[in-house]
Amino acid sequence: MSSAAEGTYWSSVLLVLQAVLGAGILTIPYVFKSAGRTGGTLLLLTFGFAEILSLYVIILSTEASRATNYSGVVKYYLG
């Protein structure tokens, strides 16, 4: 079995951006049409804050477990 190739920091950033922007481009106009300008803005800010909070928790968990990847963090906390 061959080992998996390791990505760089920038390849990871671009992969996440591609995933987020791809879904956002398709759904944001629909959200604003359905919820209106105020509701759409509120939803966008709420979910943006939730995303930032989630990333912060993942970063803290990674530092506390001293893992080098996400699967290492999951193994550390869930066994």
Instruction: Spell out the helices and strands N to C.
Output: HH
The class by helix and strand makeup works out as mainly alpha
Mean pLDDT: 87
Alpha carbon gap, first and last residue: 24 Å
Percent of residues in helices comes to: over 70%
Main sheet characteristics: none
Oligomeric organization of the protein chains: single chain
The coarse silhouette is: elongated
Q: Give the low-pLDDT segments.
A: none
Helical segment tally?
2
**Cα gyration radius (Å):** 17 Å
Strand content: under 5%
Descriptive report:
It is a single chain. Helices cover 84% and strands 0% of the residues. The two termini are 24 Å apart. The chain is mainly α and 79 residues long. It has helices at 9-65, 70-78.
Please tag this protein with its features.
79 residues; mainly alpha; 2 helices
Secondary structure layout plus pairing:
Blueprint lengths: L8 H57 L4 H9 L1
Produce a short descriptive summary.
The protein has two helices and no strands. The chain is mainly α.
